[in-house]
Design brief:
It is a single chain. The chain is an alpha+beta fold and 226 residues long. It folds into three domains: 4-64, Arc Repressor Mutant, subunit A; 77-141, Arc Repressor Mutant, subunit A (Orthogonal Bundle); 145-220, Ferrous iron transport protein A (FeoA) (SH3 type barrels, Roll), CATH 2.30.30.90. It has eight helices and eight strands; from the N terminus they run αααββαααββαβββαβ. The strands form two sheets. Strands 3-8-4-5-6-7 form a six-stranded antiparallel sheet. The longest helix has 23 residues, at 66-88.
Length: 226
């Protein structure tokens, strides 16, 4: 049985590097808010477990084994199902669910997970638009790209939003930006200036700095959605 610390490392490696690439010690230290030396010690333990959770090479970082990838996806599934349950059934704001899910994801059984999924209708995306891994470890696919790369004059649909900053989520909610919202990029300021966006064909134009824009991914609006 994996500990909470093990689960957090496996999730972080997957979120940084996916299932096939390597996560560096520096990237993991930044994401987990721990000292690089602590990361190195944990990576050695994870690589020496039986069976090993990761493949670790000094100076080259860590890559999940099949065993580690399965556990990481299980925890991500727990987390995102809990977020959606809290939001949809219990009325939590989308800015509140991440912290609660972080605490609860390690505690629920597979039976409880299955019942949440059934109640929610086997959903594919959480309240922030992130894909919920299926029980078999496959992940729903959706083609999207960063709002930062959107061209002026084009329209798009918000696909997903980072869930790590509750104040940012509160702000986006206040201006009506959430998954499936239509947006229109009016203008891009020079020298990394703000992106000027109109939301859902409204009249008001909102300025999005680069940090805010980088937290949002969008997909192209189809002809019936433009």
């Amino acid at each position: 049985m994996a500990s909470e610390a093990v689960d957090n490392y496996l999730k972080a490696i997957f979120q940084i590097a996916g299932g096939d690439h390597r996560a560096t010690t520096a990237a993991l230290a930044e994401k987990l808010k721990v000292a690089p030396a602590s990361v190195t010690g944990m990576l050695k333990k994870l690589s020496e477990a039986t069976p090993p959770w990761i493949d670790y090479q000094k100076h080259h970082g860590a890559r999940l084994t099949g065993h580690g990838r399965a556990r990481a996806l299980e925890m991500i599934r727990h987390h995102r199902l809990i977020e959606l349950f809290l939001h949809t059934v219990l009325g939590y704001g989308w800015d509140e669910v991440h912290a609660e899910a972080e605490r609860l994801e390690h505690a629920i059984s597979e039976t409880f997970e299955d019942r949440i999924a059934k109640v929610l209708g086997d959903p594919e995306f959480d309240p922030h638009g992130h894909p919920i891994p299926h029980r078999d470890g496959t992940i729903p696919k959706r083609s999207d790209s960063s709002l930062v790369n959107m061209e002026p004059g084009t329209k798009a649909i918000v696909s997903r939003v980072s869930d790590h900053d509750s104040e940012m989520l509160q702000y986006l909610s206040s201006i009506g930006v959430k998954p499936e919202t239509r947006i229109h990029l009016i203008e891009r300021g020079p020298f990394d200036g703000p992106l000027m966006l109109r939301v859902d064909d409204g009249t008001k134009v909102h300025a999005f700095g680069r940090r805010l824009a980088a937290a949002i991914r969008v997909r192209a609006a189809g002809n019936d959605e433009s």
